[in-house]
Amino acid sequence: MKFAPGITLLFLFALLISGCATMSEDECYVADWQAIGYEDGAAGRDLSYLGGRREACAKYGVSLNTKAYRSGRSEGLELFCTELRGFDQGRSGNNYNGVCPADLEGLFLRGYHSGQDIFHAKTAVDALVTTIHDLELEREQTLDNMTEIGALLVDETVSNSERVTFIADIARLKVRHSELGMEIENLQFELVQREAEYQEILARSPYL
Fold it and tell me: Quick one: 57 exposed, middle or buried, by C-beta within 10 A (0-12, 13-18, 19+)?
C-alpha cells in the first residue's frame, strides 16, 4: 500500500478505530486522504463515505483531497473485492453495495452468493429454533394456568357461576395446549429438514 511519507502510527490507529464518515476537527487537519480512502475501500464502503467526510471537514474549512482519496480507495478495494472476502460478507449477512470494479466483481460475487446460501440456511434454522422455544414456553404457561384455575375449582369461596367460567377456561386452555403440541411437533420435523439442508450447504461449500 502506497501511503504518503508523513503518515503517523497514531493516525493509522485513529483510522482503525473509526468506522464512520464523521471526522473531528483534528482528524480533518491531519488527514492523509489516501490512507482514509484505502481504509474505506478495504472495508467495502461505498462513495457516500467520501461525501460524508467532505461534509464533515468542510465545517472546519478543510478541503478533501479527492484524487488521493480515490487512489487509496482503489487500492483498498483490491483487498476487499476478493472471492474469500465476498464469501465472508455473504455468510455474515452483509449487504453488497456494488463497490467492486468490474474486473474484480465476478469473483467477489461468486464467493458472496455462496456465503449468502449459508447465511440464509442458518437464518432459517435459527428462526425455527426460536419459534419452537417460544411455543414451548407458551405451552408451559398454558399448563400452569390450567393448574392454577383447577385449584380454584375446589375453593369453597368460589361461586357456582364462577366455577362454570373456570371450567370453560380450562377447556379452552386444554385445546390451546393440544394445538401448541401439534405446532411444536410439526416445526420440529421441519427443523430436522432445515438442519440437514444447512449441513449439506456447508459440506459443498468450497470455502470451508
Answer: buried
| 33-42 vs 48-58: helix crossing angle, rounded to 10 | 150
Domain count for the chain: 2
Residues 60 and 132 in one domain: no
Q: Which among 34, 60, 80 is the end of a domain?
A: 80
Of the chain, the end-to-end C-alpha distance in Å amounts to: 29
* Structural domain containing residue 14: 9-80
Identify the DSSP state of 62: -
Cell numbers that stand for 125 in this block: 434454522
**Mean pLDDT of all residues belonging to the chain:** 90
Condensed to tens digits (0 to 9), the pLDDT of residues 41-84 reads 999 999 999 999 999 999 999 999 999 999 999 999 999 999 99
- Burial, 32: exposed, middle or buried (Cβ in 10 Å; 0-12, 13-18, 19+)? buried
